[in-house]
Fold this sequence. Notes:
The structure is a single chain. The chain has helices at about 25-35, 55-60, 70-80, 85-100, 105-130, 140-155, 175-180, 190-195, 245-255, 270-280, 295-300, 325-330, 360-370, 375-390, 395-405, and strands at about 10-15, 40-45, 65, 135, 155-160, 180-185, 205, 230-235, 260-265, 285-290, 305-310, 335-340, 355. The chain is α/β, with parallel strands linked by helices and about 400 residues long. The protein has two domains: about 5-210 and about 390-405, Glycogen Phosphorylase B (Rossmann fold); about 215-390, Rossmann fold (3-Layer(aba) Sandwich). The strands form two sheets. Strands 3-2-1-4-5-6-7 form a seven-stranded parallel sheet, sandwiched between helices. Strands 10-9-8-11-12-13 form a six-stranded parallel sheet, with helices on both faces. The longest helix has 23 residues, at about 105-130. About 45% of the residues are buried. The model has no long low-confidence stretch (mean pLDDT about 95).
Amino acid sequence: MDPVSTTTRPIAYLATAIPSLSETFVYREIRKLRDLGWPVTVASLYPYDAALEKDFSDLTTGSITINQAKNIPLLLLECLLHPWSTLRTLLGAAKDALVPGEPMSTLQRAKLIFQALSGIYLAGRLRKAQVRHLHCHFAHAPTSVGMYAARQLGIPFSFTGHANDLFQRRALLRRKLERAAFVACISRWHRQFYTAIVPEEAERYQVVRCGIDVDAWTPRAVSPAADRPLRLLSVARLVEKKGIDTLVRAVAAAGREVEATIAGDGPERERLHALAQELGCSERVRFLGSVPNERVRQLMGETDAFVLPCRVDSQGDQDGIPVVLMEAMACGLPVICGDLPTIRELIDDDDSGRLVPSGDAGALSACFDGLTDEARARLSQNGRAKVDREFSLAVNIAILEKLIRH
C-alpha cells in the first residue's frame, strides 16, 4: 500500500481567481501547504488582478488561467490525446444537464457543457504536473470545472463551500456532494446543511475552518475610551447581507459618542452615504472605500471595537464565518456581529464577543453603550483565546492534510 499517510504528493487548488484580496483564506491555505512540502499547482477560472503581481508572485508564477480563448488549442490537444476520457467527461456533463438532481435553470444546465470543456482543458494542464488531488474553493463554477477535470484525469476532488455559492449561485450541489472525496465544511452549520441534502455521505463532510495565522497578529492592550469617542471599525463589501446600514443607523442613535470607520466598496455605497447624510451622522461615519490588507491591519490597531452587523439578505444570501472577524479577534479587538447560526460558532455572546439581532439598530446601539473599558478587555482576551483554540491556520491545515492524504 502506498504510504500516503506520511508523504505529500502533487495537488492543485482551483478558485474563481487566485490571488484575490477578498479571499485571503484561499491563498493562505496554499502557502501553508507549500510550506509543509506539498507541491501545489494554482488554477483560476479568470485572470487575477494584475496589481497583485508584485506581492503574490509566488502564487501567480506558473499559475493556470482557464477561461481564455488562447487555451482552445490545448483543449483540442487534450481531446485528441485522450478521446475516451473526453467522451466520458462530456457524456457525464450532458447527463448532469438532463438530470441535475435539483432545480436548475436552463442557462445553468447549458453552462455545464462549457464547464466540462474548461475542466478538460484544466486536466491537460494538471496531467503534466502529475496532480493526484484537486481541491476547489467555492461550490458553484469552480467546483463544477474541478469535478469534470478530476473525472477527465481519474483523480479525486474535494471542495469548500462558503456563502453565495451555496445560496444565490448554487448549481449541481447534490451531485458534487455525492462525488467528492471529501467536503471541507467551514462551520458545523455547513456540515448540517450538506447532510440535509445528501445524508448518506455525511461521514465525508469534515469541519475545516478557514483559519488564520494567529501568530501573525499580536494582541494589543485595551486603551481607555472613557474620555473620547468610541472608535468603531467595519471591513466589508458594501452589500445588503453585511448590514452596514444597521451600523450607520446605530451610530446615529448611540447614547454615547461614537465614530465609525467603514472600509470596503460595493453596490450599496451610494445608498449608505445618503443614509448617513439623512440621519445627520455623516461626520461620524467615515467611508474609506477598498483598502489593501496591510491598511486593514493598521486600522485594527487604531480602533476600539470591530462591528459587522451581518444578516440574511432579501435573496436568502448570508455570510459563512467572515475571516475578518477572526483577524479582529486575533489582534485583541472586541467584536460585535449580527446573530447568525454560523457566527455563533465563532462568537459566544458576552464571552468572546457580542451578538445582536440582525437588522436591529437599537440593540446594536445599546451594545455600544455597554462597551466599558472593563467589558472590552474581557471580550478581547476571550476572543483571542477562542481563535487560538479553533480557528488557527495550523490546526485546520493539519485536518486538511489528513483528508487529502486519505
